[in-house]
Amino acid sequence: FPVAPEEEDEGKTLQLVESYLQNFYDLQRDNQPHLRNKGENPIVEKLKEMQEFFGLEVTGKPDLDTLEMMKKPRCGIPDIGQ
Amino acid sequence: YVFTTGNPKWKRNHLTYRILNYTPKMRQADVDEAIRKALSVWSNVTPLTFQKVDNKEADIMISFAYRDHRDNSPFDGPNGQLAHAFQPGEGIGGDVHLDEEEAWTKDGRGYNLFIVLAHELGHSLGLSHSSDPGALMYPTYSYTDPKEFLLPQDDIDGIQAIYGQSTA
What we know:
Chain A is 48% helix and 2% strand. Chain A is an all-alpha fold and 82 residues long. Chain A is globular and about 40 Å long. Chain B has helices spanning 28-43, 113-124, 153-163, and strands spanning 14-19, 49-52, 60-65, 81-85, 96-99, 104-105, 111-112. In chain B, the strands form two sheets. Chain B has a five-stranded mixed beta sheet with strand order 2-1-3-5-4, covered by helices on one side. The longest helix of chain B has 16 residues, at 28-43. Classes of the chains: A mainly alpha (82), B alpha/beta (168).
């Protein structure tokens, strides 16, 4: 079945968030998800770190302000752990 | 301001730079001027000096590059990542790479080469990204008329904490 537009948007959003956090906030490219501790979600933690760095509301969620910041043209150097 | 992890810095105050290639989107003289002005942003407030060299290895090698350019940090085409630079050190250390697929300009259209270069040179000298939205070392691009540009205090404090104040 064709993917519903909302789902497609969600997929794109997740892709944007993951690649941004991998590029600039040292989110590990998680090849072994089953090793992840229960309850710990690295993306939420890294999102909070990014929101804190940019002075955004720290929600741990890819809200509108956070996505807008991620779409801004920027320097290719990571913001942390350089 | 934030220092790069490990506090790398150049052991000499007299540094060299070399322009390896030019973007066809700007006149060469305008690229030279943008680079010279971007370097003076930092030399004006520190004891650092920069000498242009043309045919030998320089401390800071400046080049325009496409996508995968063999430094493990491929560019992503128009917008997104505009440029990157390497912390002080031998070899690729200090070098600045600019994404050739960006619309480089000397004014407010596209991406102003001077502004992006001045930011990247901050990395070349040992600074990391600042979380001060008004700082030159803030990660996202924002345009300022080069004729009116003044290095913000956060950046002055950062670079002088590494190299000291200008002796001029």
